[in-house]
Every structure is written in structure tokens, then in C-alpha cells.
Amino acid sequence: MKKVFVVGGSGRVASDLIKDLVATGNEVTAGARHPEKIIKLNHVTAVEFNLHDSVEKLAKLMNGMDAVYFVAGSRGKDLLQTDAMGAVKTMQAAEKDGIKRYIMLSSLYALQPKRWSKIPSLASIMDYNVAKFFADNYLISNTKLDYTILQPATLTEEPGTGKIQIGEGSATSNPIPDVAQTLADILQHDNTIGHVIMMRSGDTPIEEALDKI
């Protein structure tokens, strides 16, 4: 059992992620600006968590955790203070608290800006990818966290298949339940530490795909 903090705990991915984390025996604290919107389950504590606050305030709320997930997203409404600097603050807070494990939900090719204009789905979210580019780079280059960055293709509200493809491929989407399950399973796979993982819908069971990283 691990104590896990989920940043952006009221979102679409977070709701499934929290269920998956609890199902494998973890204690979850989920933070959001509107904690009343966080899924209500046993072993889940909802807290008010505002990424506009100071690193010190965020660190107090995250203190005592074994791992942090960043799955927050402003959907284009607050890219600088949520998707970019908000993410950086949680990294700084994790290091301040001595939390080593940090798992980031990012975007396909977020670290490869030359690809963005060539893929219509990425060209349409250019500013979001700029924010993720800086957040991902900060995590890799400016922290000593045991990070994993998951970069899924376009998220879709479809039933999960339990199967994915890692790396290059032709698929351009991922059902949200598969992204959440992959995030949850990453916590059990120390072989993913220090890796940036691109994922799409595919034919390989999630556990098997992660084992091969």
C-alpha cells in the first residue's frame, strides 16, 4: 500500500485513476480547486488544492505521500498557471517534502515541437503542448524526482480495452479508462522510472506493455 496524492483530482482521467489506485490497495488523497467534485470512495480523501497557491502551501497538503500524480488540466483556460507553472510547483513541493516518485500525464510528442504542426490533433492544441513542453522539460532537467512521463494520444470517452501500444504507431487516440489504468500500473513498475512513454490504442495488454519498457 502506498499513500498517493493525485493533483487535478476532479478531472476525467483522475476519477478513473483514483478508482484504479484504490482497487490495488492504495490510500489516495485527491486535490482539486473544487474538492466536492472528487469521486467519493473509501480510502479517498478530498482536499482543496489550488495551483495558484505557493509551493509552501501545496507542500503542506502533499506532505507524507509516497508518490504524486499530476493529471490536472485547465482545458486551455489557465495554461500558464495550471498546466505549466502549476505542474512545476508540485514538483518543487514534492522535492521539498522528500517525495521521490512523480508521475506526469502529458501529451503525445510534447517534447518534440517539430511534430506539432504536422499532426492536426496536435496543431489544434498548440498552446497546451507549449505548456506541457516546459513542464516536462523542467521535470526531466531541473528535478531529481523519480519521474515517469506518460504521453497519450487524443483522449476519448470510450470504454477501455485494457490494451495499448507504446511508442510510434498509427492509432491517434486512447480511451480514458486505458490511460488511467496505465497511469495506475506505472506506480507498480519501477522500470518506468526516468522514461517518457508515448502510448496509443493497441493490441498489447497494459501490464505486458509496461513490463517491456
Topology:
Elements lengths: L2 E5 L4 H12 L3 E6 L11 E5 L6 H8 L4 E4 L8 H19 L3 E5 L14 H4 L2 H16 L4 E7 L1 E3 L6 E4 L6 E3 H11 L8 E7 L2 E2 H6 L2
Parallel strand pairs: 1-2, 1-4, 2-3, 4-5, 5-6, 6-10, 7-9
Antiparallel strand pairs: 8-10, 8-11
Helix pairs in contact: 1-6, 2-3, 3-5
Give a verbal description of the structure.
The chain is of the alpha/beta class. It has a single domain (3-211), classed as Rossmann fold (3-Layer(aba) Sandwich). The chain is built from seven helices and eleven strands. The strands form two sheets. Strands 3-2-1-4-5-6-10-8-11 form a nine-stranded mixed sheet, with helices on both faces. The longest helix is centred in the middle third of the chain and has 19 residues, at 79-97. The mean pLDDT is 96.
Question: Order of strands in the sheet with the most strands?
Answer: 3-2-1-4-5-6-10-8-11
Domain module tally: 1
CATH architecture: 3-Layer(aba) Sandwich
User: What radius of gyration results from the CA coordinates?
Assistant: 16 Å
Number of helices: 7
What CATH calls the topology is: Rossmann fold
Output the structural class. alpha/beta
Main β-sheet: number of strands, strand sense, barrel status?
Answer: 9 strands, mixed
* Principal-axis shape: globular
In the CATH hierarchy, what is the class? Alpha Beta
Order of helices and strands: EHEEHEHEHHEEEEHEEH
Low-confidence region ranges = none
Q: How many strand units?
A: 11
CATH superfamily: NAD(P)-binding Rossmann-like Domain
Strand content: 15-25%
The whole-number mean of residue pLDDT values reads 96
